[in-house]
Every structure is written in structure tokens, then in C-alpha cells.
Amino acid sequence: MSANNALSHTVRKVALTQIGLVLIVAATATLLKGNEFLWSTLYGGVIVVVSTLFFGWKLMIATQSADKTHAVNTVELFKGIILRFILVVALLAIGMAWLKLSPVGILAGFIAAQLGFWFSKTSYGVTRHK
């Protein structure tokens, strides 16, 4: 399996785990707090899933040359890290300031999706074996 295939498999696995966790938290929050928390929680989760997919894409670009040259394009990697940070901050600001979503709901979805990195039993580019 090439590095790009392994990486795309890993990114898909992480994103699907994040989506599952966000849906569980959103359903629970809706039952406990109502529909306002449903949209806020889903939005917070979408922020992380979008940033995961974006960074996975940038990471694939950075590693495309690694199959041939055995060196990762660090400029692309750092651009991906910085742009991901900007993307997350901008989406959080839009959700709280412009869309007027509940900050607690956004953070609940955000945290649930972040836990997807942990629960997916994988990390970018390297799959752990038992």
C-alpha cells in the first residue's frame, strides 16, 4: 500500500469516527437541552471534521513526493497546519458571532469530534498495530 493510500484510509477512518461521536453527542444534547443545542453541537463537530479533511488533503500533498524522494514537503505541511488553525478560528467566530449559535453546544461538538482522533485508534499517516 502506498503512502497516499494509507494516509487517505487513515483520514477517512478518523473523519468517520469524528462524525459518529458528534452524532451521539448531538442526539444526547438534543434530548437534554432541545433543538438549539442540536445545531450548535453539529456545527462544532463539522468544524473539526472539515479541518481534519482539509489537513488530510494538505498532508497528502506534502507526502506525494515522499514516495519518490523519501522527503516530506515541509513547506506544504506547515502551510497546512497554519491554514487549519486559521480555518478553525474563523469557523468558531462565524458560529458564535454571526450565526449566534450556543457556545456551549459548539464546544460540545468540537470536543466530541476532537476525541475522534483518540477513539479512531490511529494517527495521521501511521496506523497502530496490536
Entry keywords:
130 residues; mainly alpha; 2 strands
Written account of the structure:
This protein has 130 residues and is mainly α. The protein has one domain (3-121). The protein is built from five helices and two strands, in the order H-H-H-H-H-E-E. Strands 1-2 form a two-stranded antiparallel ribbon. Strand 1 (122-123) and strand 2 form a beta hairpin. Helix 1 runs antiparallel to helix 2 (35-63), helix 1 runs antiparallel to helix 5 and helix 2 runs antiparallel to helix 4 (74-98). The two termini are 19 Å apart.
Can you give me a brief rundown of this structure?
This protein is mostly helical. It has five helices and two strands.
Query: How much of the polypeptide forms β-strand, as a percent range?
Result: under 5%
Cα shape: elongated
Strand order of the largest sheet: 1-2
Low confidence ranges: none
User: What string, H for helix and E for strand, traces the elements in order?
Assistant: HHHHHEE
N→C terminal distance: 19 Å
Summed up, the helix count is: 5
The overall pLDDT, averaged over residues, is 85
| Overall domain count | 1
Secondary-structure map:
Elements (H helix, E strand, L loop, with lengths): L2 H31 L1 H29 L2 H4 L4 H25 L4 H17 L2 E2 L2 E2 L3
Helix pairs in contact: 1-2, 1-5, 2-4, 2-5
